[in-house]
Amino acid sequence: MVAAYADPGAARPVILVVEDDFDTRRMMATMLAPLGEVRTACDGEEALELLLDERPDLIVTDVMMPKLDGFELSRFLKADPALSRIPILVVTARNLPRDVVEGINAGARYYMTKPFSPHELVQKARRALER
To answer: Which runs of E-coded beta strand occur in 19-106?
Structure first.
């Protein structure tokens, strides 16, 4: 159970979904909405702009996006002490073992490949929020 649900008056966790495909972004936001307040960005640059105003409790990001990809976003976050503790869940079509290693080395706590199981996405997001 996500800690925010233990106290009805507590603030809900904020989840930032970063995905360039509109339909996938909307689908993931809908799946994750029961876990917290979902914000969305269409690429890594937009995500960084959102991070100026609000610190999410979890970032769910694609890798292959225009402007700033998910691995670059992860490396940027992990290099910034103010942002480095935000857990990152990568959801991508890049499924080779070297891609998984690159994602983990970039700072991802979890790595999932597309197509993905909605149940697995929610479970991994819940686990990341509980830590």
So the answer is: 37-41, 58-61, 88-92
